[in-house]
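Person: I have long wanted to understand how a fold can be written as tokens. Underneath my words sits a plain record pairing an amino acid chain with its backbone structure tokens. Those tokens are not coordinates but codes from a learned vocabulary of shapes. I should like you to check that the lines agree and flag anything odd. The protein I mean follows directly.
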Amino acid sequence: MQLNTIIDSFHALGEELRNFLDGEANGKEQWENSLLLAEQENPWFTQANIRLALRGILSWLNRDALNKWLSAYQKLGEENKSPKTIGVVMAGNIPLVGFHDFFCVLISGNILHAKLSSSDSRLLPFIANKLIAIEPQLKDRIQFVDKLNRPLDAVIATGSNNTARHFEYYFRNVPHIIRRNRNGIAVLDGTETQEELFELGKDIFSYFGLGCRNVSKLYVPANYNFNHFFEAIEPYKEVINHNKYHSNYVYNRTIYLMDGKVFTDNGFLAVINNTHLSSPIAVLNFEEYESIEKIGDKLLEIRDTIQCIAVSKSVKAKLTNADLPFVGIGETQLPSLSDYADGVDVIKFLLDV
């Protein structure tokens, strides 16, 4: 298939998706039913969170954006006359988290052989069928399977640190990308406005904090006053009305009380001094730093465990190392097409297979 044909297909998919999100799609009932089935399968996938994920994907499905992104890969201009079969093991922590890999495999002219997560098995097949209806040639390029059980030319697998070790061994004889646990963090210097702290709430509470790009830890100056932070995130209090989130909040708070841990909470989020990057649901870790320069050195040491770093413009100006994955506060869940998970360029990897 010609690259332009595939780009046109995704652009058309974007138009249909835009119409649905704007309430204008002819097949509105099909979309709504798909979202409902996804939420029934996984209660963490609320209608609002699925639509948030779809909005993020929509920003990619634009012919101009696609051409600009892909212009960096000269080999893509050549027709792929011998498509490779790419095995993809997809995660299911947030809605459609595997879409970018799905996207990259097809854009590169290859064949997708994907194992879906049992937590997210409804949405991507539905969208794939929409894409096939737009361009029937893609039907033979998209395969969803219960197990990666055929010869593969390459593998992309996402999982926990434990499953990653299994993947490394199991796929040791084929080119592979194996992704492990990573977290989003934020660095504050105490000068953030209430508006910036409100935006930080998006980074913390979107998808109930289950994404690898969600902020799970704050680095703050010594004796940081959390009162302003709690005031700014008060509009997110409705999150506690979700049954599973509420259960996690009560459980973690109870454990801290029983263990005599010192923490602060506002009725829907517990904040605790903890050196770990990863935090439980409804909990935000924090760690104090002595100077902004020293925290920069610390972040470089743990670079391989960080997915992104939310910072204000003033903080970014102080942390001048360009090798760190900075994003603006409130933008962790708005990755661009070239914001590859774990910093590994998937298109380049697929072109080199």
Summary: The chain has a mean pLDDT of 95. Residues 3-21 form the longest helix (19 residues). Residues 183-328 form a domain with the Aldehyde Dehydrogenase; Chain A, domain 2 fold (CATH 3.40.309.10).
